């Protein structure tokens, strides 16, 4: 038996996998690793490209890069412009290296906060409640917010370092990030759920944080991947995604624009169905969850590639298996 | 005086099987069955079905309310979910075409005329019974204007509002709402409720039928062909009125036979037979004039882009969350977004689909049928021809109708076209 048929067989098995189930288990394992890995003394550094929250002091298996980034940018200006800031550059490079491996796949497969939203969605689904959608106009406006948050996340620490803003505003994004309050709770730490009354700024920031966390819980119950839409990490990812290894590719000539991919997209990305010209089809909102590939009935129209090698390709057989469970042959 | 009139011997009504209409069907069916060699054994089911329904005028039993549809845009999954049976009313009979001429201007689409002719006649063939509701999606002008006429014939008609632009978000929202309104109309008609379970069951049923169709479609990629296009058209035509589960089983049997043929290296045509993609106005039994002329002349129809076959069954629905709302929305999208009907403003998708079919099915050329009077297909001819010119794919454009009068002229044109395809192939080889 030559290697080729074996390889083809492996490819068929992968392409026809029960994708949602695979992704559920992958996310669960990743969640456990990054929320509880610390207890097993796992430490993957502090340059991780997803919300492995640093405030989850005991359980974390690594720290989200946004925490050290904001701290570094918040140094006094004299220090910021000294040789000491080489560390900022090397830190950023380490972050980029992590990021390049999975691209936005970190969001769709690994990020604990993303996984948590999927679980909240599953809870809603089980209760038989439908999800909500944005209108096209709302989408066009809201999609910009993550870039605004990214800009603020860089500018405010610089302002803190320059003495314009109070230290109590640092690190600004972490203070309002729902992960700071929610993820430590999984290891029994509820201490983040407090309003800091030490100063007016502190009261404002921590209260804002609590409101956003409440909004997060309600939002992700109503809307699939509610928070990812506003995530500055997602914006940062998009800006550096060119050299990434994991890619989402589209062959427009095979696309019928049936919209099946759009129908399953948690982020409501229309381009995935309508754009038949772009081959690199990952947009700024994409979480690279690859549900679109799994729900595409046209063989080869959508695929995930790793370093140029197709690893998961849409196939007609895979689609039929996943969508029409049990109706291929008479029962 | 009066007595004399009463003494005239009344004319006995002739049985349907001896009517001119049955004769038309009989001639075409005999041609399909007898004039070609080595028809697949599993095709017998379809030959028998058409003989019973079109030649003998046998009744087709159905369960629940009967919902007639005049277009593929009426979501049949919804009709099944309400326990009703959909039947496609688009008709291919020349007899009805002539009858329907009373309703439409002289230069109108044969299909629309035949459908009107069928609905207005006392003895409707196929004998499906009187539809409890006729769903008429607002697609082309001729179908739109038929609505009131069908209503005038004593049918209950529902105009399913269909957008004529499909790219915009407004059209998606509008169509989704239309489909929901259609569902509530069906609820009124049947007195049943749409539930997650019955819609899912209906979708599984059509999903299985579509999977069977796709498998058949894929077997037609094989060179030289395993099955002729005339048989494939007959199979998809049967979907119009046949019981869906029985139809699916019959197609699965046919697929099994084609798999055997493939394994045995069977050839349904000569290896040099020109491979043709068929597009344009839909061939509907008994009007399989063009596909039959093509295959008599030694060509083979390997794929099609018509609403009586590929467009009706190819596109499948994906659902993310199997809740009623998401299922209905996804269904609505499936009926609008991938549709390549020429009634839309733009036809980029149709051109892309055709290029892809030619490429995937290794076709040598394309034959474009436009029913005279079907303005939208006539108007799209130019842009499609330009696209094929650019791609270097030969295309033959044929304007025709249900009348058999032009057969001689058409067969000359088709033979010449196929000959040129053969020569081109030789030169390339």
What does this structure look like?
The complex is a heterodimer of chains A (331) and B (429). Chain A is mainly α and 331 residues long. In chain A, 51% of the residues lie in helices and 5% in strands. Chain A contains 17 helices and three strands. In chain A, helix 7 crosses helix 12 (200-222) and helix 11 crosses helix 12 (200-222). Chain A is globular. The model of chain A is unreliable at 326-331 (pLDDT under 50). In chain B, helix 8 crosses helix 14 (324-336) and helix 12 (289-296) packs across helix 17. In chain B, helix 16 (375-391) links the parallel strand 7 and strand 8 (395-400). The mean pLDDT of chain B is 94. A four-stranded parallel β-sheet of chain B has the order 2-1-3-4, with helices on both faces. A four-stranded parallel β-sheet of chain B has the order 6-5-7-8, with helices on both faces. Chain B has a domain at 66-198: Rossmann fold. In chain B, 52% of the residues lie in helices and 10% in strands. The chains are: A mainly alpha (331), B alpha/beta (429). Chain A binds chain B through residues 125, 128-131, 135-136, 252-264, 270, 273-274, 276, 291, 295-297, 316, 319-320, 323-324, 326-330, and chain B through 167, 169, 204-205, 207-208, 211, 214, 218, 249, 252, 314-321, 323-326, 329-330, 333-334, 337-338, 349, 352-353, 355-356, 359.
